[in-house]
Amino acid sequence: MLNLIWIIAAITLEVSSWILPGFAAEGTDAVLSVYLLLHAGASLALAICLYPLLHDKHKHKHMRLRWAMLSLIASFSFVVPVVGFFAALWAVLKIRAYPVHTAGQPFTSVVLPAFDPYQQLQIGGRSAGMRAFLNNRTASTQSRLKALVALNHVSGRVASPLLRDVLNDHNDELRLLAYGMLDRMEQKLSNAIQHESQVLQETQMQSQHPGTPLSSRGLLAAYRLSELYWEMIYQELAVDDLHDFAVQESLRYCDMVLAQIGDHGPLMLRRGRLLHMQGQHGAAAQCYEKALALGLPDTRVRPYQAQLCFEQGDFPKVQRLMRSMQTHNAQPKLRPVIDYWS
Length: 342
Prior knowledge:
The protein has 342 residues and is mostly helical. Helix content is 69%, strand content 0%. Helix 2 crosses helix 3 and helix 6 (141-149) runs parallel beside helix 8.
């Protein structure tokens, strides 16, 4: 009943605003004022009439801006005569027809779509999903070739194991591409090793006595040789006998540099890891302790010390070492290990 009264008042005032000024003999400011007053009253009555429709529609919400809503409807109807009157009515009815969206509505379960299990997200790391896709024989050869080519933009440490897995694939194109990519990676490091070896030989030949210390150029070449052989090990490009040879050569050049420059934290850590690979646990433990003394952070050395103690069966020491590390400074992959031993 209240809405009916207000809609009748709105229509009456709007019609009066157009009829009553017409009886005036001439247009004056008084006539304009009467029209504006009646039109404003009609707009306000329309707003009061339409507001309950919006309030009932959204009664679950806090209507703190009701005066703003009333002002918006009345202003629109007042600024746009006649057309605004019917447009405001149409807009409110249109909004009322929309379904109410209840935010935060809970749900019980969601049925998983039938995705290919090889393309689902794997928890084991970024390379796990790529390995599963490359080994998925149901995928198209073209898609697998594109994924294989994308490994050119991945670090050798991640790409090399994936490429070696593809060497056993039944598809000839994939095997040849993987073999070629591995060969290029190995050839790049081999060329760099050959170049640095020539530089080191030239500097050694220039010295008059065999025991003469290396020049700065020769020392840099020896350092790079140790690093290149270590890169072959790190990228898993050296396997079986070549792996043992790379460990031996990297250790030889590492000792050559340390013998001349003295203590060096990163090189001492590398020496410890190389001795660790050779099974010289005592010497490796000494290198790890010395690397810590030279200022390397715990997060770079403690994991290898813990690994060495784990291989020796000293589990209490492993726990002490892992507890001594600060979790917030460790790499993301290492944090679960620290949490497990702590």
